[in-house]
Amino acid sequence: MSSLDLGVIGNCAIASLIDRKGRHVWHGIGRLDGDPVFNALLGGDDPQGGFMDVVVAGAKDIGRQRYLHNTAILETVIDGSGGTVRIVDFAPRFRRFGRMFRPPMLVRRLEPVAGRPRVTIRLRPTFDYGAHKAKLTSGSNHARFFGDTGVLRLTTDASINYILHETEFSLDRPLNLIVGADESITDNPDTLTKTFLAETESYWQTWVRDLNIPFDWQQAVIRAAITLKMCSYEDTGAVLAALTTSVPEAPNTPRTWDYRFTWLRDAFFTVTALNRLSATRTMESYVRFIVDVVETGSSRDDVAAIAPLFPIAPGTDTTERLIDTLPGYRGFGPVRVGNAAVTQRQNDTYGSMVLTSAQMFWDERLPRQGDLELYRQLCVVGNEAQRTALTPDAGLWEYREREEVHTFSAAMCWAAQHRLGMIAKRVGVDSEAREWLARAGVLRQEVLQRGTTQEGWISGVLDRDMLDASCLVLPEIGLLASDDPRFHATLDAAAKRLMKNGFMMRYSEADDFGKPSNAFLLCTFWYIDALASVGRRSEALELFNNLLARRNHVGLLSEDIDPKTGELWGNFPQTYSQVGLILSAMRLSRSWEEGLWHAS
């Protein structure tokens, strides 16, 4: 049965998800959102295709799996009746010829570490979301698996015939499988694999060495940071919400979404996490991606038409459609490709665009600084934020069948105007700064007046009572202070009505699909941060450590969690969850001085 006990390898061009048996169960050909030629994750209980694996004769248990220290290189060790096999999986990434080498290539190395294990190598890609089995051609040391949508080429120093006929053999020496684009590899596979492995290990360890990390929970933060990096598509700078589609938020629910896109709503929080980590290049690329969205909409004088989500590269169809060729995760469908949220109105995106772009006006590390021209383009966004702030939208949670005036959306529109006032000061137009701040002040008063309930807590929508976890971040964006009585009341109300067994729900009332049953991990991090901000650190620490214990066996998180069983659900790995972990750890950790000299 499928589970989210998965490791992830990647190189910011492609990625692959690997289960504890060493099976590649999700891999998009060519790039992060490509046609998943390995799709067993959505293949039901016993998929017969859409994977690459190694069957070890006599293996009774799942493998022992870990990442090599501070890398995206995954090791799986499997004991069989004849001996033990070590499997090393990675996607090459390192600097070569003055630029980053990140080919669309998966590399797998098999090593016998005890006895004479007998193994069967199986490579069963399918194309067009499982609709077509691969056609095949082969040579002396390679095989080509192809369909109408692409080609997958295997180069190996193992027996091609043993692989194509899935014949068991004794593993008495290291063997290497290089799976990727349809390009000839003339190097010796063993030499090439060892070289690529050493270079990739060095790259990741060097990247980690340059991170700013907290004293406490270092391993958790490093793993989250590496995973966040692997969810970035370096060619354009986009960051995906997750690497998968259609892993349901809970069992027996149609809440199955395609998350292989960039959401504007995520940008501010993601950039904040990257900035705290000092992952400057990744942050710069993502900011550039968002700024280009702003500039494109502004130059066309059509900011209102900017969609809330974008493909990671041009030319991708975002239209949502259902796929009937894959049964879904554990058979729970439907499987969706594309996302209908692209057509929604989400007014919080205006704040996200301005808050993200604001990084360019203050961050002296960035080679391109914000200037008067960029400010003018952001003004178009700010004007749209003012126009739409108090109008109905689908909201942060993307309701599909209803629109209301959501407090978080209105607050982000306030943030757009408030930050534009600060940016205007920065670029020397003080009169406009005063105007933006005055507008923001008026909007803030109305949002808080209409959003505060008779009981004194902040509602998730204006003019009626509806508790929403997004109100926990209002101090983060500056709408009100964390010591404001209204925020304390909101915090208490969320604890009473949205908290389940230490995990926070997004909301409790029914939506388009009924009442949600699973908690949203990011909201739990928001609640932890909120507790810390009001001085309730011990409570925050307890919840944070409890949440860390719910990560999978290699330290990764999905989107949702069953508050009763602790099982992970939702698309995987979830960028928002990694961001939440990083920011909460930064907030709660002792300083390095305190940790080193006053540890107890």
From TrEMBL:
One of its GO terms (biological process) is carbohydrate metabolic process. Residues 218-582 form the GH15-like domain. GO terms for molecular function: hydrolase activity, hydrolyzing O-glycosyl compounds. Pfam families: Glyco_hydro_15 (PF00723). SUPFAM superfamilies: Six-hairpin glycosidases. InterPro entries: 6-hairpin_glycosidase_sf, 6hp_glycosidase-like_sf, GH15-like. Gene3D superfamilies: 1.50.10.10. This is Glucoamylase.
